[in-house]
Fold this sequence. Notes:
heterodimer; A: two-stranded antiparallel ribbon; B: 3 domains
Amino acid sequence: MNIIVCVKQIPDPETPSSSFKVDEAAKKVIPAQGIAPVVNPFDPQATEAALRLNEADGGGKVTVISLGAESARDAIKHALAMGADEGVLLNDPSFDGIDNFQTAVALAKAIQKVGEFDLILMGRSAADWDMGVVPSGVGQLLGVPVVSVAKAIEKNGGSVKVERVLDDGFQTVEAPLPAIVSVSNEFGEPRYPQLRQIMLAAKKTVQIWSAADIGLGAEETGAANRWLPLEALYVPKVESNVEIIEGDSPEEKARNLAQKLRAAKLI
Amino acid sequence: MARDFAADIADPIAREIVSNVGTWVDKEVKPQASEFEHADTYPDPLVKGMSDMGLFGIKIPEKYGGLDLSFECYAGVCIELARGWMSLAGIINTHVLVGYAISEYGTEAQKQAYLPRLVEPEIRCALSITEPDAGSDAQAIKTTARRDGDDYVINGQKMWVTNGHKAGVYLVMTKTDPAAEPRHKGITAFLVDHDVPGFIKGKKFEKLGYKGVETTELAFDDARVPATAVLGGKEGSGFQHIMSALEVGRINVSARGVGLAQSAFDDAIRYAQKRQAFGKPIIEHQAQQIRLAEMATKIRAARLLTLDAARKKDSGIRSDLDAGIAKLFSTEICQEVVLDALRIHGGVAYSKELPLERYYRDAPLMIIAEGTSDIQKIVIARSLVKDYPI
Lengths: 267, 390
């Protein structure tokens, strides 16, 4: 199959909260000093899914697309080191500060430029903004079915059978190809790149496409044209209080606790 | 979350490789290293992970199926392995060291016979020098190899052999001319397959640390090997070949010191920010700040010395001075840093629930293995004299 995998480079989610800073006036996250950005942790699972599907299918091609800064080349290189074939970086000053919907538009245009595809795979969400709407947006724009939060994917002739993760169980659905599937962490561990693959990936060229290269008009990109205006960005204040429930006996302590919880309408 | 440990690697591909190995170490090694270590169990799943990544072929020439990566990359990888568990960097050490000796000094037939099998690895390697009465004075070995027609017959006893039970091929240092003067001219190295009749794998030593990987005795009782087993095919060159290979081993052990010290420091600086004493986190006490600053400075210097020695080796020139300096410094500061990490943790470090006690037991190996600190000083001094002729 011709599979396209979309990956994103994000600030390291393991960054300690003490290093995490927001410029509230500029409504921007300030990258933590000395902590390199990483591949969105759900995305290697999307790459893994693509590789496994093509291995089971006896061949195919995996193209990786990322929208981001020049450093996002590293996220693409990681997927290439895992075994993907080609990489495209969407890089343009007008992409700075765009929202998820504009990202979906840009990705859809890039996918159309790549050409024929059977399947598009993405991580279930990006661990920075964690909205998980880009797969649906791209699906809407390309007019293909979208299946979200997959724990297992199997090609079944001209369709894919997908086991989805629900809050209270699992659901198996089937979608005709071409389709978009977002992959969840329940899919399983992605492979570690082999040293030889890392060396080969270093020799592969990552194409860089600008907004103009994918046919994006000035009105479609840029922070000024966000579909979703950002009103405010700030680090939430987390407060916690500890109250010791008094009582002369365990029974009385339990009774007092129950009364407190009832008064707080928690039970 | 920690600093980018690959940042000091100059070559971008090597940096990417070291970074990936570091990710593997954080996810796969650190969570289970102490369990394997306490049980003194050979870490088969971890060794398979190393093999799957291709680490065992890291220094094998491409012509024979390996990756032929730089010593800088190798040193970075060993630092990361030791950051997870020092024994893993030990398992790969003798393998790479013997592979290097074959690549550099072996005959073409030896290269073709062994090197492709070391990549997967179908077989692993062991190096056998030390004997009951010959440690630092390696030229005092008593194991002999006597020519008999087209064969040699080996007799003697060896000690402290890493991978001693699991290796497929052993690089064994012997005396083919016990009367030779100078003594090193009588020393010959042999590639001995594990299943040679008369080659006996002895007991496994119970050790203070460096667990998981077996360290054993070996014995040779009229073990007969063909003359083609002489490394490089020429008698009397064994000491030179093995000393050259030990430069690679010293880079490895130096890297182990850096990795282990880094791990102890990482634990200590996190703990110092959490642990409260006298009303504030202990990191706010000046004594701990000074201690941590000294630890970090030592590790930084050791890391750069290790990478510098590796780059010297990459340049193709003799690096015994640089490898000696790096090994001496890194392993000595490793002991100091680990002890300081224990001081910062206090009583809890004495518990087996934290890895500090493992670090403390592992650290002393490095000031002994691949040449003690005293031997390093002699190597360094002799090299320096050559640099300052009068």
